[in-house]
Write a structure and sequence with these properties.
heterodimer, A: 263 residues, mainly alpha, two-stranded antiparallel ribbon, 11 helices, 75% helix, elongated, B: 246 residues, alpha/beta, Rossmann fold, six-stranded mixed sheet, four-stranded antiparallel sheet, 9 helices
Chain lengths: 263, 246
């Protein structure tokens, strides 16, 4: 495995900013596909699970169910959106060849990966912010620890944008991108504590949850709202940070060797 | 003065297939250079190696003295490429295609905007500036590839089949445009299947077949009193016969 000298440097700040702007422009063009659907889905979840069923569930993790639910829903959409942002953009760039506009320019692998990851972070915060506002409006719930809120959203967005880049590079057709969402993200998020505390699960499933990375993300993020968690906050942050670093390095390495980018 | 392009012993393999087999080539600054060969001869692969779209197994490529592997940050801005296939960003308007390409080269500000507007004007695309490329005709798309290749004022312009699929009128217009650029000092590296085009435009020619350069000299020396087409076909046939023996 050989890397071009300077593949891991950042010098072309204008190029990096241009890529971020381009991703924002793309998001704006496809806003009906990428921004409104997660918001509408979340509103439906809040009405059906939070307001209709939630009133019968009672306290969960020591807080009303609506308060418990909102941070889980935010994580669900942050994960989906940051993955979707990077994976579809990288894949489209390869499929339609416009990624070549960047590849022929003096942009390093690190600048390209940072551009896609930063765009994923922006989209994650946009969605998280909108759903947080909905939470305040609909169930009168908001975060109490903004520092932790920002940290977890940023780490999760880095993790799933990086995974999005990896799958965007590996995919041979659009279906391949959906495979990760359908068979990995959705099941793991749903059993990872979006709707229920792990304490409600049978003991064996509780133990299995410890192998589910989504469990740590959702639990740490929920702490920023409720001040409570099923697992030690430090451990959850360490797991999310470690996974984010590993995924970022993998995405960077693949880009630096030109995997499915440079023939 | 370093050559605009200096290729030494370039080898590019895809698995067991050798697409470019140790070619060496020099293109002088200010030259109008034709790089000719049949389909699959290795022209686009060579171009991709020059512009950084293809990694290669051995050899060196220098652009105005800058090694494209080691000094890529310096080398890449010196080259503009108009690819054979349209590869525009479908989320950008025509004007933004130029401005964002300039941005990737690290350029922004009023001067770049003025240059983008100047190029749009020069290529007859001003009226389409705020439209997406899917609204352009084939000829307009071809002109946009040239405008995009020139947005960062490269000293070397690589044109990969720039007149493929365009009508006679536009072809003549494009010829005049690249001649004008060349007169202004831009080195042109042209691939084309239209041999009369190469004969009309190029001062020096290289012919590639089976990944090997079979001729590289001035047009006048290469063809003498024959047509380029006759010389081209003879060289290709000789190389193919030689390859069978090898």
């Amino acid at each position: 495995m050989t890397f071009a000298p300077g593949a891991f440097t950042v010098r072309n700040y204008v190029g990096l900013w241009t890529l971020i702007k381009r991703e924002m422009k793309r998001m704006w063009v496809v806003i009906n596909q990428v921004v409104w659907p997660p918001i509408i889905t979340t509103v439906l979840y809040v009405f059906v699970f939070g307001l209709a069923l939630g009133s019968r569930i009672g306290m969960t993790q020591g807080v009303p169910y609506g308060t418990f639910l909102i941070p889980g829903l935010i994580m669900l959409q942050v994960i989906n959106e940051s993955y979707g942002e990077a994976s579809s953009s990288v894949f489209q760039g390869r499929f339609l060849n416009h990624v070549q506009e960047m590849l022929i320019a003096p942009m390093s692998a690190l600048e390209i990966v940072l551009g896609f990851v930063f765009a994923g972070i922006v989209r994650a915060f946009l969605i998280a912010g909108l759903i947080t506002a909905l939470g305040v409006l609909l169930v009168h719930v908001g975060p109490s620890n903004w520092g932790l809120y920002v940290l977890v959203v940023a780490l999760v967005a880095i993790l799933f944008s990086s995974i999005g880049i990896i799958f965007g590079l590996m995919a041979e057709k659009f279906d391949h991108i959906a495979i990760f969402t359908t068979f990995v993200i959705t099941p793991l998020v749903f059993v990872g504590g979006v709707f229920t505390s792990s304490k409600f699960l049978p003991p064996l499933v509780q133990k299995l949850s410890l192998f589910n990375p989504m469990f740590y993300m959702i639990d740490a993020f929920r702490f920023s709202f409720t001040g409570r968690s099923d697992i030690e906050l430090g451990l959850s942050l360490l797991v999310v940070f470690g996974l984010a670093c590993a995924a970022f390095v993998a995405a960077l390495t693949m880009t630096a060797v030109g995997y499915k980018l440079r023939a | 003065m370093p050559d605009a392009i200096q290729i030494d012993g370039l080898v590019k393999r895809y698995g067991n297939f050798t697409a470019v087999d140790g070619i060496s080539l020099a293109v002088k600054e200010g030259d109008f250079f034709g790089f000719l060969g049949p389909n699959g001869a290795g022209k686009t692969t060579t171009i991709n190696a020059i512009v950084g779209l293809a990694a290669f197994q051995s050899g060196t490529i220098r652009i105005f003295g800058n090694d494209i592997t080691r000094d890529w940050r310096t080398a890449r801005p010196l080259v503009g490429v108009s690819p054979q296939e349209f590869n525009f960003d479908r989320y950008l308007t025509i004007r933004d295609v130029l401005l964002y390409q300039a941005g990737y080269y690290g350029l922004q500000g009023p001067a770049v905007k003025r240059r983008a507007d100047m190029l749009l004007e020069r290529f007859g695309l001003s009226g389409k500036a705020n439209q997406f490329y899917t609204k352009l005709s084939g000829g307009q798309k071809r002109r946009l590839t040239l405008a995009r290749a020139m947005i960062h004022e490269p000293k070397l312009l690589i044109l990969d089949e720039p007149t493929a699929g365009v009508d006679v009128e536009l072809r003549i217009e494009l010829w005049e445009l690249v001649r004008e650029l060349n007169r202004g000092g831009t080195t042109i590296f042209l691939t084309t299947h239209y041999l009369e085009e190469a004969e009309a435009l190029c001062r020096n020619i290289a012919i590639i077949e089976g990944g090997r350069v079979v001729a590289s000299e001035s047009l006048a020396t290469l063809i003498g009193d024959r047509s380029l087409q006759d010389v081209f076909l003879d060289l290709i046939n000789q190389e193919r016969a030689g390859a069978q023996v090898r």
